[in-house]
Amino acid sequence: MNSIHNIANHNGKDMIHTKLVEEVNELVEAIKEGNQEHIIEEMADVFIMINQYTYIHNQDKQFFKQVNNKLKRTIKRLNIKEENNE
Length: 86
Fold this sequence. Notes:
Helix Hairpins; mainly alpha; single chain; 86 residues; 0% strand; 3 helices
């Protein structure tokens, strides 16, 4: 089990939900103020909380499926040729 899972198991669903909302709000404020360093810091916090949230709700696979679907949809909509990185 990785660190995110250990922290999520310790915090529990209610704390993760509360902290995710808090961190997203902090990211919005950082974006508004425009400080690049602060934005990156808050993005990291949101990333960690999203990972805790998807893990604790057993939605990891569904989350990454949605991310992949949205990326594919955007690539198609923008008519971008995908490179084959094999």
